[in-house]
What does this fold into?
Amino acid sequence: MFERYIVCEDGFRNVVKDGQIEGFELKLRIPYYRGIALSLINSIDLEIDGVSFPHEDMVFTVETGSFPYHEMSTVINNRWELGEKAVLFLKKQGGLNPGKHKVKVIINLRISYLPFPTIREGTKEIMLEEPKVLDSKGGVAVE
It folds into this structure.
C-alpha cells in the first residue's frame, strides 16, 4: 500500500561542497502506517539504474538529526514519522549524471508486534534536480 510513496519525486539531486560534487541525496517516506525509532530500521538498500550503493556511504537524515548508516541501529530517541520526508545522502564523487534515473529502494523494518520483518520496495523513474550547493561549513549556500 505504501510502496508507491517510498521514493519522493522532489529532492533528488547532487550535492556540491567547495565546488565539488560530493554525492547525491534522495527523499524517502516510511512504508508503514506509524512512525518508528531509527533503531528499528533493519536496512535500507538503494539501487539506481541497476547499480547498488554500499551502506557505508549513506547518511540518513530525519527532522531531529543526521546519522551515518552504521549508527542507525543505536538511535533510539530519534524517529522517522509517518509523512515525514527523510533524506538519504550517498557519498559518490562526481554524483549522478543529469537526467532521469530509475531509483529502487528496499526498506526493511522491525515492528515490535510482528514476528517477521516488514520489507517494502519502491521503484520510480525520477528526474535529477538542480544541485544543492553547500557552503564550507556544510550549510546551504545562499545565492
Observations:
- The chain has no helices and twelve strands.
